[in-house]
Every structure is written in structure tokens, then in C-alpha cells.
Design a protein that fits this description.
Helices cover 63% and strands 5% of the residues. It is mainly α and 462 residues long. The chain has three domains: 92 residues, Fumarase/aspartase (N-terminal domain) (Fumarase C, Chain B, domain 1, Orthogonal Bundle), CATH 1.10.275.10; 221 residues, Fumarase/aspartase (Central domain) (Fumarase C, Chain A, domain 2), CATH 1.20.200; 102 residues, Fumarase/aspartase (C-terminal domain) (Ribonucleotide Reductase Protein R1, domain 1), CATH 1.10.40.30.
Length: 462
């Protein structure tokens, strides 16, 4: 007999059990479900809704079930549909009638909302730890290569010289925003739905504040209809996860490019590369490529949940069972990508001589145009002069650094010996000495800021 089967006269078709059941995926919520039930039972006992002895028996029974699950002694029953009813069934079998009182004053609707919120709170904190590790790996690379110059790109064409550390810190900033987005998402996830019942609340004199205190929630849902039907927090998490994957994918793409023979800027560790089954010379950046490829999965999880929710009337609908697989998949995918990207970045070796060579040449053209503008020539005219100068170099097989002062002066009399001093990547980055610029002094400030951010997190954890 189903726990809800009192008004039914026929057995549920086996095909219905298979289709309806969620135990094969929501079983991972067993910790949250048991913790929520212990808090609920404790409150029921304290409020006199059930006896203290019954509450104690329920809590003890749930603790024992948790230990059995952790020890691998429990086999969940698909006929019991989901993790909530499986645990209630186990509890009733174990302690008898007191177990049948656990569900007093609550519904599966507020129970499942509680479990998902508790799960996401825990996973958000775990993901933030992994983001911190990736940021630390980027910071270590930046600190170890503070003086290395490389070409910055637009349209994947060499544009202007930048410090390699500046480039690493650009990703640090992206992941910092991701960390902060998860913190914001945590605030809206940290809302207790329990007590909303199926949709309208409960007739029992419950104490929701006590349950929030026991479970560590900072807020309580203010509307029972919204409490059971809200999945905004899950959508918000999936949106934040999607942006993290965008940033991981962009970083992965750069690693793929930089590690190619055509670029040769970095060499990946053998520990985070693969070979070819037929071509013995190959060393493939599979980690970066897989991260890039897995991005679409998380995007799909976001779109799937948005689509589930878009036409649902209040309050709970069975469609909402589809929320968990999207969230679980995004969590698993994102954790896997973060766990592998950090050590890949840490063990990556830079080739400074290659990056410096690529940072010279026509990437210095803007500096010469700026030089003419500082001498009074309108920038648009200076831009034209340098365009002609670059074309001259192309026609004669030269780089800007190879031009003599006489050649420079033939394009503009404003060029003098000082202009020759600009023709190196090091001189180029040195000139960009302002907040956010790539000059060594400014990058040192950026490094100090990044170190302070990570140190502040570590202090909070201690």
C-alpha cells in the first residue's frame, strides 16, 4: 500500500511506478532529508504536537537510518517513489507508530523544496572552495611570471603587448565575479520553505523560527504558495553555473591555442594531456577541450529548468520533479571541470622567449601613433601615418624594431630618437601605468589585491 493510497482501489501499474519514481536520482538528498526531518520532529516535540518521547524515537531512528545508508546497508524501494517516502517507510518499519507521525504538519511539497535548498547551500560552498583553488592557481602563475610579456589579442590578431600576469589576472577577475554571484545566489537559497505544507500552510501550531534555527536558515519564506512553487534559486544557481562554464571554456580555448605548435606559448604537463592512438608525436590538450565541450551541458540544464517552469500555475506541479536532475548534472559537471582545471593551470609551463618574440613587431604600432599624438599630431592622422609605416614594413620584410630613425622620420618629422626607445614590448607595457593597466607597477597592485582577496577568504574559514 502506498503511503498516500487510502482513496485508491487499484494497484499502481508497474510502468507508472517506473515513470513516476524519482528515487534513482533524488536518493542523493538523503542527508538533507534526514536532517530536515530531525529538525521537524524536534520542533513537533517541543511544540507539544507530538510527545517528546515520540520525537526522540523519531530522531534516534533517523540517525540510525542515516548510519545504515552511509554504511551501504539500505536498498531503496522504487515503489516508495522518492527519497522522502523511502526514509519515512524505513522509519516506520524501524520504530512503528511514532514514525507515522513524522509527516504531521508538513507535505512532500515543502519537504522537497527544503531538501533542494539545503543541498544547494552545501554545494555552493563546495563550488566556492573549488573556485578559490582555481583562482590560486592563476595567481601563482601570475606571480611566477611577473615580468613575462606576451601579445594581447583582438579578433585573435596580435594587438598590443601585455604582461602574462595581467592576462592571468583577467581570469582571476572573471572567477571573482563568479564567486560573488554564488554568494548572492546563496542568500536567496538560504530561505526556509518548511511549514508551507502542500500550499496553504498547516493547522498545527508549528514554530518555523525554531526549524530555521535548527537547520541554519537565515530567512523564512513569507508566502506558503511561493514557498512550495519557487525554484528561482535553482534557476539562479544554474545561471551562475553557466557563466562559470563560459569563463572556464574561454580559458580552455586559450590553453588549446597557446599549447599548439603554431603558438607554442605554453606546454601542458604530461599528467594533464593525452596522446594519439595513431600519431606518436601528438600531445593533446584534452582537459581544456572537454571543459569547453561540457559547457553546453550546463547551458542545457539552465534552459531545461526555465522551460519546465515557464507555464506552471501555482502551486506545486509534478513537472517540478524535473528540477533536480538539471541541478545535479550542473553541480557534477561544474565540480568536475573546476577540480581538473586548477591543477592543469598549476602545472602548465610558460615559454617566455616565445611570448616575448610574438609581443613585438606590429603590436608596437599603437605606441608610435600615441607618440605622434603626444607631439601634437591629431590621433587620426597619427593612425594614418602608422598604417602607412606598417605597410612599408610589410612590403620590405621588416619589423618596426628594425627601422632606423631616418626611416621613421621619412614618414613624420615628429619622430626623434625617443621614438626608438618605444620599440620593445617591455617599453610598451611600462607606458600603461594607470589603474587597471598592464604596466608592471599596476600589475603588482593587482597581484596584491588578489592575494588580499584569497587571504580574506582563508581568514573567514578559520
Amino acid at each position: 500500500m502506498k503511503l498516500w493510497g487510502g482513496r485508491f482501489q487499484e494497484e499502481t501499474d508497474g510502468r507508472m511506478d517506473d515513470f513516476h519514481s524519482s528515487i534513482h536520482f533524488d536518493r542523493r538528498l538523503y542527508r538533507e532529508d534526514i536532517a530536515g526531518s530531525i529538525a521537524h520532529a524536534t520542533m513537533l516535540g517541543e511544540c507539544g504536537i507530538i510527545s517528546k518521547e515520540e520525537a526522540e524515537a523519531i530522531c534516534q531512528g533517523l540517525e540510525e537510518i542515516l548510519a545504515d545508508i552511509e554504511a551501504g546497508k539500505v536498498e531503496f524501494d522504487p515503489a516508495a517513489e522518492d527519497i522522502h517516502m523511502n526514509i519515512e517507510k524505513l522509519l516506520t518499519e524501524q520504530i512503528g507508530d511514532p514514525g507515522r507521525k513524522l509527516h504531521t504538519g508538513r507535505s512532500r511539497n515543502d519537504q522537497v523544496a527544503l531538501d533542494l535548498r539545503m543541498y544547494l547551500k552545501r554545494e555552493i560552498e563546495a563550488l566556492q572552495e573549488l573556485l578559490t583553488e582555481l583562482q590560486r592557481a592563476l595567481l601563482e602563475q601570475a606571480e611566477s611570471n611577473q615580468d613575462v610579456v606576451m601579445p594581447g589579442y583582438t579578433h585573435l590578431q596580435r594587438a598590443q603587448p601585455v604582461l602574462f600576469a595581467h592576462h592571468m589576472l583577467a581570469y582571476f577577475e572573471m572567477f571573482q565575479r563568479d564567486y560573488e554571484r554564488l554568494s548572492d545566489c546563496y542568500k536567496r537559497t538560504d530561505v526556509l520553505p518548511l511549514g508551507a505544507g502542500a500550499l496553504a500552510g498547516t493547522t498545527f501550531p508549528i514554530d518555523r523560527e525554531r526549524v530555521a534555527e535548527l537547520l541554519g536558515f537565515s530567512q523564512i519564506a513569507q508566502n506558503s504558495l511561493d514557498a512550495v512553487s519557487d525554484r528561482d534559486f535553482a534557476v539562479e544557481f544554474l545561471a551562475a553555473a553557466s557563466l562559470i562554464m563560459v569563463h572556464l571554456s574561454r580559458l580552455g580555448e586559450e590553453i588549446v591555442i597557446w599549447s599548439s605548435q603554431e603558438f607554442g606559448f605554453v606546454e601542458l604537463s604530461d599528467s594533464f594531456s593525452t596522446g594519439s592512438s595513431i600519431m606518436p608525436q601528438k600531445k593533446n590538450p584534452d582537459v581544456a577541450e572537454l571543459v569547453r565541450g561540457k559547457t553546453g551541458r550546463v547551458f542545457g540544464d539552465l534552459v531545461a529548468l526555465l522551460t519546465v517552469l515557464k507555464g506552471l500555475p501555482l502551486a506545486y506541479n509534478k513537472d517540478m520533479q524535473e528540477d533536480k536532475e538539471s541541478v545535479f548534472d550542473a553541480v557534477d559537471t561544474l565540480k568536475g571541470c573546476l577540480e581538473i582545471m586548477a591543477p592543469m593551470i598549476s602545472t602548465m609551463k610558460l615559454r617566455p622567449e616565445t611570448t616575448r618574440k610574438a609581443a613585438g613587431g606590429f603590436a608596437l604600432a599603437t605606441d608610435l601613433a600615441d607618440f605622434l599624438a603626444k607631439r601634437g599630431l591629431p590621433f587620426r592622422q597619427a593612425h594614418e601615418v602608422l598604417g602607412k609605416l606598417v605597410y612599408h614594413c610589410i612590403q620590405n620584410g621588416k619589423q618596426l624594431e628594425e627601422l632606423s630613425l631616418e626611416e621613421l622620420a621619412s614618414f613624420s618629422p615628429l619622430f626623434d630618437g625617443e621614438a626608438l626607445g618605444l620599440l620593445s614590448p617591455e617599453a610598451s607595457v611600462e607606458l600603461r601605468d594607470h589603474l587597471g593597466g598592464t604596466a608592471p607597477r599596476q600589475v603588482a597592485k593587482q597581484l596584491a589585491r588578489a592575494q588580499k582577496i584569497l587571504a580574506g577568504r582563508q581568514e573567514k574559514q578559520q
